[in-house]
Amino acid sequence: MPNRIDFRQEITNLLHAVDGPSLRNCMQCGTCSAVCPAAPFMDYSPRALIELIASDLKPEVLASNAYWTCASCYLCTARCPRGINVAELMYGLKRYSIWKNRYQRGLLGPGFSKRFVKMILRTGRSFEPSLAPAYVLRYGVRGFLREALMALWLLRLGRMPMRPHRIKRIANFRRMVSRIVPIPGAA
Amino acid sequence: MKTYSYFPGCSLQSMAESYQISALATARALGLELEELDDWNCCGATAYFHIDELLAHTLCARNLAMAEKAGHDVVAPCSGCFKNLFFTNEQLKKDPDLAEHLNFALKEDNLTFQGTIAVRHLIEVFVKDVGVEEIKKRVTHPLKGLRIAPYYGCQLLRPRKNDEDLEQVTFFEDLLSSMGATPTAFPLKMRCCGGSLIVTNRPAALTMLRDLLQCATAGLAHVIATVCPLCQINLEFYQKQVNREFGTRFALPVLYFTQLLGLALGIPPGQLGIGKEVVPATSVLSCIREEAVLTHS
């Protein structure tokens, strides 16, 4: 099949712009997995994830929670003896799974990122309260009450904003963005 | 007086307002002018890079182009903003095609990126541009007896920005020593606080926070000093939840390094945003006062 690009190549292409050596340089030493503070919460460790990609196991990669569990702390990148930017690979896989609209059910990461981006495109700035409701429900009624009480407390301490801030040149801002990606409602 | 374009970032104007108040107060006391970038927009946080890399760079590029117009280097107090702005700046400087592409978009806001400025973190400006020795000279109220855990977090240092050492880092300790405080041994000082996992994967983030709080406690710290709003918010707001989850009894105050520096420079706590803590910092203040009474009697 001369025209078929395999998954491994697809991921390599995806990371083409990333500085540093390609995934092919990975020698499976597991340093990334050993230093990763979030690895215990991943179904596949960073090392295992690279092995899945090298083995062209696309469905397993797309079903994995590993990259959505990455907190982007870059310890793997800093410590990789082969100089691979592992954290950037995690970003790449997040983008790939959003693009393909395929990710493990129940993960909060994809929805959070999408909401966040929508919010920024509306006002130009982040506004925490508009992000909260969708997530606090996840933690049950007691969890919801706890989060609500915390929000009230923060409000009283003057640490919670009441209104979202909209940047002044928001119209220009939205037109600027629409020159990069199409957004609804921008001229 | 050296002037910088100040990029607060969204957190510093809401949940981390005390960082902003203390950053501006200490910068002024050290003779630095932080001029807020007019009409700045969100740096994109981590979420933007999950969706579209080009768009994430565009958001950062607008801020950079505005700072270029003002003619000053950008200073960001938030490690996340710092990392994003820094790498977009680097990327655009070495990739003219990308810069051209983004400049086409920036035209909509009458801006152009030219690559004429640098991006700095606030602590780097204090340590390098002002200098630890100079700060030491200006300290009027040394924080004697106060044991502070220096928490670097991740994105301030990683990925590597220039060619600095990422393993044997001590500038935060040096800064704390210059304030007259005792920096404690804190082996996890460069480990992650969990960042946005506090929203998207609460169990993972709480575990990471537990490890950090344990480590700081083992070093007998009175307080953790942070350089990033996300680290501060995670370590402080969610300390109670860590206690509930793991049956621990942490009550460790978490302050911004600028708040502690401000105290050492003799700025009243109220002008440093101290008093808005979820985990009260009264133990820190009384520790300083006790020491002052002891030395004067």
Summarize the structure.
The complex is a heterodimer of chains A (187) and B (297). Chain A has 187 residues and is mainly α.
Describe the fold and architecture.
- Chain A is mainly alpha-helical and 187 residues long.
- Chain A folds into two domains: 7-100, Fumarate Reductase Iron-sulfur Protein, Chain B, domain 2 (Orthogonal Bundle); 109-178, no CATH class.
- Chain A is 50% helix and 0% strand.
- Chain A contains ten helices and no strands.
- In chain A, 33% of the residues are buried.
- The mean pLDDT of chain A is 86.
- Chain B has a four-stranded parallel beta sheet. Chain B has a four-stranded parallel beta sheet with strand order 6-5-7-8, sandwiched between helices.
- Chain B has 13 helices and eight strands.
- Chain B is 50% helix and 10% strand.
- Chain B has two domains: 2-121, Glutathione S-transferase Yfyf (Class Pi), Chain A, domain 2 (Up-down Bundle), CATH 1.20.1050; 132-296, Rossmann fold, CATH 3.40.50.
- By secondary structure, chain B is an alpha/beta fold.
- The longest helix of chain B has 18 residues, at 53-70.
- Chains A and B meet through α5, α6, α7, α9 and α10 of A and α2, α3, α5, α8 and α9 of B.
What are the key terms here?
heterodimer; A: 187 residues; mainly alpha; Fumarate Reductase Iron-sulfur Protein, Chain B, domain 2; 10 helices; 0% strand; B: 297 residues; alpha/beta; Glutathione S-transferase Yfyf (Class Pi), Chain A, domain 2; Rossmann fold; 2 domains; four-stranded parallel β-sheet; 10% strand; globular
